[in-house]
Amino acid sequence: xTAHIVHIVHRFDTGGMENGMVNLFNTLxxxxxxxxxxxxxxxxxxxxxxxxxxxDFHALHRAPGHGxxxxxxxxxxxxxxxxxxxxxxxxxxxxxxxxxxxxxxRATVHGEHGRDVFDLYGRxxxxxxxxxxxxxxxxxxxxxxxxxxxxLRQVIHVPPHKLNQIYNGVDSTxxxxxxxxxxxxxxxxxxxxxxxxxxxxxxxxxxxxxAFIQLxxxxxxxxxxxxxVIVGDGPVREACLxxxxxxxxxxxxxxxxxxxDIAEIMQALDVFVLPSKNEGISNTILExxxxxxxxxxxxxxxxxxxxxxxVNGLLVTPGDVAEMVQALLFYLDTPARIAExxxxxxxxxxxxxxxxxxxxxxxxxYEKTLGR
Length: 372
What we know:
alpha/beta; Rossmann fold; 2 domains; 6-stranded parallel sheet; 14 helices
């Protein structure tokens, strides 16, 4: 019997959560699960990465503010779709749990994938009041990191029997170490520090940009081989470019905007850097590890579960430019460390973070929720 699952998100666009959903849809057996995605606001062409089965998309075009028109539209849609299970993701879609209950749906899952800059540590009392109010309506929770699982248990008081911690998976065939010459951008002898992601405030790409500039000013002779790549689009992209142009270093950086060839981009890098203020489980870190890249990441959220300091990368204090400079210098000074940490990164990614294992774990939660 095929179960119809309706996945409700705030918006379906380029991002780690959406990438995880695509991997899930492309891996779960279509004879057992049929999927529909409802975006409370809108969706983008990112949905075309779903190739294994047909997934219908609906956009409710929810307007900012407290109007309830979206809830009425969602209620009508759910009554029409008649799902066996509703799966909401993150705070921005949590209110849909109340609508699902009003529509008579009793099998529900809620996923926590990370927190945004407006509530980095999940302490906002209004948000947590909403989370606790929705708690009786959620059959099971999925947290993508142990950090989020602990927070759900200790702060939101989710009963342990409802909690399921599932790491995201990564395609270690698509994302693999570079073989041969660097594909583009930099001289073969350069050390390319790079990142991939939405250029939004919570990712703190200005910190990485300032650290790169400071490295160049402090160590001009040693840093002459260093290059910076940040792939992605968003509101802070222009600010980072202005910092580089103001320092006269724009010629040593490449900011191509959003790209679809991320696996190839990863192969052009030597060290991956994620300077976030907070993270759930970063898909781009997983992709970097699978690509055989050491990772410099801030010691926040799920990063601590992926990056082992001095083994497959380095952990730095969030917001600390000087510490980030030292981390960049660590790899710039001794390229042999890049190879050593990169080999460990690749091995761990293959062993710990496979997509089939992730999909099987999600299927287990769905079966438990459906009572099958």
